[in-house]
Specification:
Number of helices: 7
Order of helices and strands: HHHHEEHEHEHE
CATH topology of the largest domain: 60s Ribosomal Protein L30, Chain: A
Structural class: alpha+beta
Number of domains: 2
Helix content: 40-55%
Distance between the termini: 86 Å
Strand content: 5-15%
Number of strands: 5
CATH superfamily of the largest domain: OmpA-like domain
Largest sheet: 5 strands, mixed
CATH class of the largest domain: Alpha Beta
Strand order of the largest sheet: 1-2-5-3-4
Radius of gyration: 32 Å
């Protein structure tokens, strides 16, 4: 009997095969992980990397040998998203104000690549300017004051753009739509300065009739083109 048992043990799988099988399984798992790590989202990777760097106090932490030219700066991405939230909050409050005042068509706000655009119609109710004038009408003051309050919440630069329709104007004060659009933008700029906004943050431009947002072949389209756009620019 002892000899038969020993012969059965010799006919089984050698013990080294078990260890070899475990090693092959681990190698297979290792290479599968390598393949899965070879393709990744640059932004997500950098966000994770940045979190680890700042968690361990390594402001100038290690860098991988491979670094894409399009790799975004982690801190810049985070700051940009925070700024977008602030700008979107201003847009939301202005839209809410317009709804409460019943002037949805007069004040609009929309996010753009450059920042938050606050669009003010220069015609309609209430009227912002008389025809051919750059003097802000008194009934429009509360709207501009609300916009100024929101602008003062941020340190961002603000570009004020004047736009007109394509109907020509020829007066001693405004020989063309260029002068009229620039004067209207400047009137808004001066109002903001009077409300306590730092002049260094503001600049005004006039585009005349050359940046329409609607066709000029109807009165409705021309009314949309007669506008002042207040662009709160991104800091980054």
């Amino acid at each position: 009997m002892p000899r038969r048992a020993k012969r059965d043990e010799e006919e089984g799988t050698p013990e080294w095969m078990t260890t070899f099988g475990d090693l092959m399984s681990q190698l297979l798992t290792f290479f599968v992980l390598l393949v899965s790590f070879s393709v990744f989202d640059d932004i997500k990777y950098n966000l994770v990397k940045g979190s680890l760097k700042y968690s361990f106090g390594m402001v100038k932490g290690w860098e991988l040998p491979y670094k894409s030219r399009r790799e975004p700066d982690v801190q810049l991405v985070i700051e940009r998203r925070r700024e977008e939230q602030k700008l979107a909050g201003i847009g939301y409050r202005l839209k809410k104000f317009a709804a409460e005042m019943g002037i949805r068509g007069t004040l609009q706000a929309a996010m753009r690549e450059e920042g938050l655009a606050v669009i003010l119609k220069t015609s309609g109710k209430p009227v912002m300017f008389d025809s051919g004038s750059a003097q802000i009408r008194p009934e429009f003051i509360p709207i501009l004051r609300k916009v100024a309050e929101e602008i003062k919440r941020l340190p961002n630069k603000v570009r004020i753009e004047g736009h007109t329709d394509n109907r020509p104007i020829h007066t001693w004060k405004f020989p063309s739509n260029w002068e009229l659009s620039a004067a209207r933008a400047t009137s808004v700029l001066r109002f903001f300065i009077g409300e306590g906004i730092d002049p260094d943050r503001l600049f005004a431009v006039g585009y005349g009739e050359y940046r329409p947002i609607a066709p000029n072949d109807t009165e409705e389209g021309r009314a949309q083109n007669r506008r002042v756009e207040i662009l709160i620019l991104r800091e980054k």
